[in-house]
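Dear colleagues,

As part of the handover before I leave the project, I'm documenting each prediction I ran so the next person doesn't have to rerun anything. This entry is a single chain, and its sequence is reproduced below.
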Amino acid sequence: MWPIAAIILVVGVTIQFIQQPVQNVPVSYSIIAPRDVTQIFKKACYDCHSNETRLHWYDKVAPISWLVKNDVTVARSRFNFSTWDTLKIADRQVRIWEMLNMVLAGKMPLRTYAALHPEARLTPHDVDVLKKYAASISPAKYHDTSEITKAGRERENFKPQAFTNAKVPIAPNGVKFISGFKNWQVISTTSRFDNHTMRVIYGNNITVKAIKSGQINPLPNGAAIVKAVWNSIEERNGEVNPGAFNNIQMMIKDDKRFPDSKGWGFAKFTGTELTPFGGTAVFNAACFNCHKIADKTGFVFSLPVENKKVKTIKREVFDAEGLRVITAFANRKKQTLSVLYGYPLSLHRAAKLVTFRQVDHPSWYGSYINGDVLSVDTINKADAYSPLIFPQ
């Protein structure tokens, strides 16, 4: 026993000399927010997400110190309150909403950290303060004339692109733009009040089949999901209509190509030119970090909402019977989301207007998603509706 104890003692002492403690560099651009908000951040977030890390004696003892150093390094790389004002305003808004949703999902503060630092746990009042703060930094602009004008000009001047194999946009991680997704089934639609966008989400046959069979966690290899995103034009009467085109986001499932992100490869193509987003393949990790919130639904946010009243198919995908999306809109006072299906190039033909119940997004505070179908109406002519702009 004594030799073993001696070895353990020697190893324990030795490893104390091979550690690199957490370094706090000077704070340069700290976050500026209301006092009650910064107090919450300081008690729950600053030890990892700032250059003001407070270390207790046990945080400095190896091997615990190694874990602390790793957690702080990773946390600071995601966002750092001490360099906050170096971020663009839009990026700050994204980070705040992501933080809020990590808290609501029970993923932040880390459970291991909260166990050792019980003062870091957030109260319902704290969460309410953060919700109000998030809403205050991204307020709605009702009847935004600049967005209305931008959308009008886009419709007047837009010409769809036809890609050759040599010109297909490719994300830095190798994910190619998927042409033809407009022929896929729509699996859900969302109206977001955090970033004021509207989204139509499509799934390929593998995805739709997996959703209907309940095989969502994980989704099978070959599954592909496309989110088409437009800015929203919001009115005081609750109406929300699509504005100018914003971006197209894609997720493809391939366990061999993307093992570090549970098999998901992410891509984003911005503007009507569909410019690939992200300077390097590292952005794939940033996308996955956000999608970790949706770990209960295979790391996919906007799957059809589960209908607990149905015993057979829990998640239903509306079958448009081959019709394509003409447009989508919402009414927050009536709590509805609608999709008009038909023939986008022949608006004089009959179309099908599907109205869904609007429900709170189960995985993302800051968004509404369609629930069950309320009505399906036939529209004799769809020429009264402005079709959505699809760059390709």
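The longest strand covers residues 239-253. The mean pLDDT is 89.

All the best with the project,
I.
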